[in-house]
Each structure stands twice: as structure tokens, then as C-alpha cells.
Amino acid sequence: MLALDGGRLPEGPQRSRAWPSHSKRKTLHAAILALLAWFWSGCAAAPARHTALLAPAQKPPESVGLEIFVLRYLPDDLPLSQHLWEQVDEQQLPPGTRRLLAANGLRAGLVGVQLPEPLVQAMNLPERPAEDPESTQLLEVAQQPRLARRLLQIRSGQQGRIITTGEFARHAELAVLVRNEQGEVAGRTYRQVMGLLALEVHGLGDGRIRLELTPQIEHGEPQRTVVARQGIMHYEFGPARESFDELRLSAVLAPGQSLLMGAWPEQAGTIGRQLFGERISGREEQKLVLIRLLQPQADVLLAPGRDPQLSEASGLAGEGDGK
Questions:
Q1: How many domains is the chain partitioned into structurally?
Q2: CA distances (Å), 148 to each of 19, 123, 262, 274, in order?
Q3: CA atoms within 13 A on the CB side of 193
Q4: 5 part of a folded domain
Q5: Of 162, 176, 2, which is closest to residue 70 (Cα–Cα)?
Q6: pTM of the prediction?
């Protein structure tokens, strides 16, 4: 007897009982081929399914990416101390907020996708943004870099902080004057001081965020304190922190927009002058803080590792301190 496709069938009376007809043989042959095709296609598809399981984890849907710069400059640098603010939209903040900030030596405003030329020159930005905002690294730089930068991924409603002064060595003593809405001035001298901006973001559901910044002063020796957070009492160990909630500012940013914050350098003793000014190597210096909301396909302004004067960590603290 030959194989199924051999042509000749067995002879004798067994033919009608044991061997299927020609049409049935064709059907059986097709079924076997289909079964083999299904088996091999399933084996070939398995690696693709396995690869999908190893895809990179996606960022949390409620998180946003911020690019933060702290820039040091001399008060006589006219492009940064004067000309820059002519290109910043300070009118986006409510008039009452602007007046109170100015009375305390602070100023802030919004910057569009296209940064003002004085900032571009001072920060030495590339013409094209880098494509990978996650490739941050710590650079070997001088102890006091001119430009500090950080990429911060933060959830909506979570807090972060930006160190504006005392990041390398706390101030032994700092006298601060604060003026309230009624024009009353109160002063206090702090010891072992580090100046901060508390940062909090709230997603608006359309790609924009509401960014809130609150000046703070961390001072004194570390101690244990009890704080309430989300209705739960926690023990925390660290220096005391005073928050100037009456100077909190709030601004809405669209992707690509930035908030710029600095001080009026001539208002000595104010909280703005103390937080954004510092005496370094025997000379007075000022600071600017730029906070930019990254695009959904996050495009950073400055490629990591491009400028040896850039620090990825100096002047910035991480997210989620919750204080």
C-alpha cells in the first residue's frame, strides 16, 4: 500500500471498508495542513506576545514633567537684571499678588515657549532640545556652578521644593523683613538658615497645570516634630520650617510655558532679597528660578552633559518631601 498521495490504493474487498473516498481524502488532507499551519503560526506569535510584556513602564497618568533652572548672576548684569523683565509677562498674576510680592522684594511672571534672548544667552541653550529627558546625570562641576538644572517628575497634588539659598552651606544668621497686605512690617532673625520655594502642581485635565510656589525658610538644629498630612499625624526629624503662605503665588502653565521668579535687588532685608540674593566669594549675587512645563513628548531645553558649568543637582531638592 502507498501513502495518501501515492496514487494506488489497496486491492480486494477491504477497499470499501478501510479506505475513504477521494473527496474525503482531500478534506482530511486540507484539515491536517490547516492544523499544522495553526500550530506553527502560534509558535511564531509567542515571542511577540512575550516582548509586549517587557515594554517600558509608562509614567503615571497624573504626573507632569518640570524642567527647573536656578541661574546665578551679578546685579550689574543689565540684560538679566533689567532687560529680561521687559520680556516677561508679569500681568498674568493678579494685581494684589503682584503688589504684595513687590512689597516683599519678589517678582514673577510667565514666559512663552520662546525664551527671552537674555535667558538664552545666559543659559547657553542649544538650538534644538534634547530628545531624552530621562537621561539626567550628575556632572563634575565647581562647588558653586552658575547654572543648576533638574528634571522633576511629580504627581498632581504632590509637593516638591527648590533650594534658593544656603544649599552649599547654611547661613549662620539671616534677618528677614516681611510686609503684610495692610502694610505692616514684621522682622525676625533666623539662624542656620536655608531658603526654599515649596512647589505644588495641580493638573487641570487639558494638559495645563496650576503651579503654586510658597517661600519658606528652614532654620535651626534638627528636631523631631509632629505634622498632619492628609489627616494622619506623622513624626518628622529635621530643622524647623517657616512657610510664608501669604506670599504664595499661583499661575496656570500650558505645555512649553515657564514661570520665572526673582527679586528686586535694591530692596535690602526683604524676604525676596534674602531668598534670591547671596554673598559668594566676597561679592553679591542674585538668582533667578525658571520652572518650565514639559511637552507631553518631553523636550528639555538643555541637553545633559553639554555645558561643564551646569549642575544637575545644585540648588534643587527632590519631589514629595510632603512638608
A1: 2
A2: 86, 10, 15, 19
A3: 20
A4: no
A5: 162
A6: 0.69
